[in-house]
Write a structure and sequence with these properties.
6% helix, twelve-stranded antiparallel barrel, globular, 39% strand, LOR, Porin, LOR_sf, Tubby-like_C
């Protein structure tokens, strides 16, 4: 990847088991499934399933989009839902919950009038409204970098590989050691839905 990933930080957000110790980054492949809705399969570089993501179909009955991140055994880890008022705001809850006490983080997309998309990420249960992580896209939106807050500390990189008639869209992900890669996957699946 173009930029050098930053040194490791201890940052369990979803759970500590998703913070792989160093010295090497965790490399994942997120494949967008050919199905109705936004479903994804997340594998490691050897093809082992790490996570799956399943979404609902948005309708008049369920106007809010819901996505669920499952571990390799099919256990629900994170429930992602977008705001009824804006598709640019997402909330992440533990398991299948939608209770405020189980909120993990929320994301807000920056202004639509900017040339490069930015996503501000706010962890739950904190006193300030300063973003904890920021996702910045390249000019054409084919890759994203994840930084700690407004710093230049790079903790993950995502490169989008467009699909064809014969292949599916993929995201190549590299996450720094000790950074919660389940958290990074949850961010990625909300980027283009």
């Amino acid at each position: 990847m173009a930029n050098q990933l930053s040194p490791s930080f201890g940052t369990p957000i979803i759970a500590p088991q998703y913070c792989s110790p160093g010295p090497h980054p965790v490399d994942l492949i997120i494949t967008k499934e050919r199905s109705i809705g936004e479903n994804f399969t997340v594998t490691d570089t050897t093809g082992n399933i790490v996570f799956t993501v399943q979404s609902n179909i948005v309708s008049i009955v369920t106007p809010r989009r819901h996505m669920f991140l499952f571990d390799a055994n099919g256990n629900p880890i994170v429930h992602l839902r977008n705001s009824v008022f804006s598709s640019d705001v997402w909330e992440a809850f533990r398991g299948r919950s939608k209770e405020s006490r189980d909120l993990i983080f929320r994301t807000e997309r920056s202004s639509l009038f900017q040339l490069r998309m930015k996503l501000n990420v706010f962890l739950a249960n904190k006193a300030t409204d300063v973003c904890d992580f920021k996702v910045k896209a390249t000019l054409f939106g084919s890759s994203w970098d994840v930084y700690i807050g407004d710093s230049d500390i790079l903790v993950a990189q995502i490169n989008k590989k467009l699909g064809t008639i014969f292949s599916r869209e993929k995201y190549m992900v590299s996450v720094c050691p000790n950074i919660d890669y389940a958290f990074i996957v949850a961010l990625i699946v909300t980027l283009e839905t």
